[in-house]
Q: What sequence folds into this?
């Protein structure tokens, strides 16, 4: 079993739609959680950290469910510019991050 | 923008040749990382550095070595390139809570 698993997609949604991605992790000792965004043939960039109480940044909401060992990312009112691959990232309180393979989102007009 | 550059950006090399990739940063970050990204795999850590001359292995370190003689530069060397090392290589800097990535190097080993 992979340490961090994501549905690869693609998720094809129209502009204005709400879309949600889930990510599961295998190590219950995980300490920190993040979502990164990666545009095609570009470097990953931090989208948001995920806090235990859940957090929101504009149209983006991240949730953590420790009991079920998953995190989620909700995007409301999707824009064409949201088209990208979203990477789920977990830290097990070591010096390293574990990256999922990513979920691809395509927003169409 | 964390002021990270990677060189070269693209390289084609032959099996068995040594290759060195360079990561340069301008923000004086203590931690620097080398990852590779391949289809079907998440970013995988090759080596990382927690200070000048202080380095450690990641999960896919076989066939790679690193050096960090200055805070701003982190070099990744493929001792004898193999086709399995064809990949996109990303350098990253910063703490685990917010890593900044360089633009990547596309390496093809023929």
A:
């Amino acid at each position: 079993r992979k340490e961090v698993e994501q549905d690869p997609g693609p998720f094809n949604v129209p502009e204005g739609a709400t879309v949600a991605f889930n990510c599961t992790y295998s190590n219950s000792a995980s300490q920190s959680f993040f979502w990164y965004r990666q545009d095609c043939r570009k470097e990953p960039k931090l989208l948001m950290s995920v806090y235990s109480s859940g957090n929101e940044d504009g149209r983006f909401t991240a949730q953590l469910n420790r009991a079920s060992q998953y995190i989620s990312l909700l995007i409301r009112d999707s824009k064409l510019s949201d088209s990208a691959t979203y990477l789920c990232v977990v830290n097990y309180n070591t010096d390293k991050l574990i990256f999922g393979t990513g979920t691809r989102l395509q927003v169409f007009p | 923008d964390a002021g990270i550059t990677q060189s070269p950006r693209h390289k084609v090399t032959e099996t068995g040749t040594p290759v060195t990739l360079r990561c340069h940063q301008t923000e004086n970050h203590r931690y620097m990382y080398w990852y590779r990204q391949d289809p079907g795999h998440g970013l995988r850590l090759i080596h990382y550095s927690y200070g000048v001359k202080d380095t450690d292995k990641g999960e896919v370190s076989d066939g790679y070595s690193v050096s960090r003689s200055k805070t701003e530069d982190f070099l990744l060397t493929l001792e004898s390139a193999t086709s399995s090392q064809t990949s996109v290589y990303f350098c990253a800097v910063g703490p685990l809570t917010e890593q900044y990535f360089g633009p990547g190097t596309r390496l093809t080993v023929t």
Observations:
- DSSP finds no helices and eleven strands in chain B.
- The mean pLDDT of chain B is 95.
- The CA atoms of residues 45 and 59 of chain B lie 6 Å apart.
- Chain B touches chain A through 23 residues (CB under 8 Å).
